[in-house]
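I am going through a labmate's work and have reached the protein record below. What it holds is a sequence and that sequence's fold in token form. Please read both lines and tell me whether the tokens look consistent with the sequence. Do not assume that whoever made the record got everything right. Thanks in advance; the entry in question is below.
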Amino acid sequence: DHRPRRAEIPPVAMAAKIEVLNVDPDQILCLYSRQIDVFEMDATLAVGPTYARHLGHRMYRGEYFAMQCDAHVQFVQNWDTDIIEQWKSAKNEMAVLTAYLS
């Protein structure tokens, strides 16, 4: 997973479904495992991406920043500080940044 590796600052919180067969302590997800909330669900109970996004929203616990994305998203270097700078440029602490990837 390249999201944490391409971030300039370590992630404050992430939500992910992780299946690990061989745990490598140097793997990026293992390095930040204390900051990762995991929701496991039997695949036979899955009813599509809308429900999965709903579950992601329910995991929100008041973090200052929150982001939700699909598994196919690729991140650029320092994506985290870039997004924060975009938010600051709005000069509105209630600003919401949103995009639909194509």
In short: The chain is about 30% helix and 5% strand. The two ends are 20 Å apart (CA to CA). The CA atoms of residues 38 and 80 lie 21 Å apart.
